[in-house]
Amino acid sequence: MNKDLTDRIAVLLINLGTPEKPYKDEVREYLKEFLSDKDVIRLPRLIWLPILHGFVLPFRPKKSARLYQKVWTERGSPLLFNTNDQSRSLQKKLDDYKPGKYHVDVAMRYGKPSISEKLNDIANKGGKKIIIIPLFPQFSTTTTRSIVNKVLEICKKDLKSSSLKTKIIEHFHDDELYIKASVEIIKKFQETHGAPDKLLFSFHGIPKSYIGPDEPYHTQCLATAKLIAQSLKLNQSSYEIVFQSRFGMAEWIKPYLSDRLYSLPTENKKNIQVYCPGFVSDCLETLEEINNESRELFLNSSGEKFSFISCMNSDKIFIECLENLVIRKSEGF
Predict the structure, then answer these.
(1) What local confidence, expressed as pLDDT, does residue 1 receive?
(2) What pLDDT score does 165 carry?
(3) What residues in the chain have per-residue pLDDT under 70?
(4) What is the pLDDT of residues 37-82, one digit of tens each?
(5) How many domains are contained in the chain?
(6) What is the CA 175 to chain-centroid distance, rounded?
């Protein structure tokens, strides 16, 4: 591939991040960066940092490392290799559309490859224009805004990166092809496994206190689920929206997935399927938290059948969605 990016538009897919290896030291470094982000943990630094360094980092990495080891593969971190696969598929689609016009790459908000590394690499190769796609369909201050803030910080500090003209795709929660990709994935799964008593749309949770004028995340999650359900022609009683991955003692947006897994069997909903529209790549939160921990909780609560529907990953319709997002954002660039 031509290394000179002078006449090309760079496209940077950015996901959350992953430790380099599924071991305690590497997980500690990853968690340290992640949990030090002011957009993720909004407590005053004087309060949070002693908690982070005195109580979280000495103990949590060992537990988290064991979870990462369960989902790690010969290709490494599922989140990273799935994102790399998406990048390659998107590059091929864009090359078919306009050969030589686009250069697609991958970065992680936390860990490696870092945003700083990739922005500098693009600038050093003569890149002038970049489209950034945070791989979070629903905008949140804890994800997309954090990425935007990091990009601005890097460009402010680094002279070469500061010369990049940047466009950012802030959300695509209601994009027609994004919704269609989810619908087709669910349909295909149910053609083989049948319809459940209840379909759960599980999104990553955030603290309830974060919801405000600058935080449309909850509203966008509800909108996404409604659009998918309408396309599937589901009635309101056949699906639910839930939130997972709660961290800490504060109240998060509800209903909590764990609460519903416990109570659904008591409502005679003993065959459920879980799909995670907010995760475009399978990762720890889907492969372990949903497919293992949530499955165990449901079955131990007298549930009879639990099915996890995989994320989009390199689904052809989803890659087409990314292609269209890039092409639309390229207009007038």
Answers:
(1) 45
(2) 94
(3) 1-2, 159
(4) 999 999 999 999 999 999 999 999 999 999 999 999 999 999 999 9
(5) 2
(6) 16
Are residues 254 and 149 part of one domain? no
Q: What is the pLDDT of residue 159?
A: 66
Give the residue numbers spanning the domain of 143: 9-172+316-330
Looking at the structure, tell me whether residues 56 and 168 fall in a common domain.
yes
User: Between β-strands 9-18 and 102-111, what pairing exists: parallel, antiparallel or unpaired?
Assistant: parallel
What is 202-236 written as a DSSP string?
Answer: EEE--BGGG-BTTB-HHHHHHHHHHHHHHHTT--G
Token digits for 289?
Answer: 């938290």
Q: Which of 224, 173, 138, 178 is nearest to 320 (CA)?
A: 178
Residue with tokens 């027609």: 176
Distance of CA 48 to the CA centre of its chain: 25
Q: Taking a C-beta distance cutoff of 8 angstroms, is the pair 303, 265 a contact?
A: yes
For residue 28, the one-letter residue type is R
- What is the β-pairing status of strands 129-134 and 102-111? unpaired
Same domain, 61 and 106: yes
Give backbone dihedrals phi and psi of 149, rounded to 5 degrees, phi first. -60, -40
Whether residues 128 and 271 fall in one domain: no
157/267 same-domain check: no
d(CA 303, CA 291): 14
pTM, entire model: 0.96
pLDDT of residue 37: 98
Q: Is residue 156 part of a domain?
A: yes
Same domain for 268 and 142: no
Give the domain CATH number at 276: 3.40.50.1400
Q: Residue 3's pLDDT is what? A: 75
Q: Rounded CA gap, 81 and 267, in Å?
A: 39
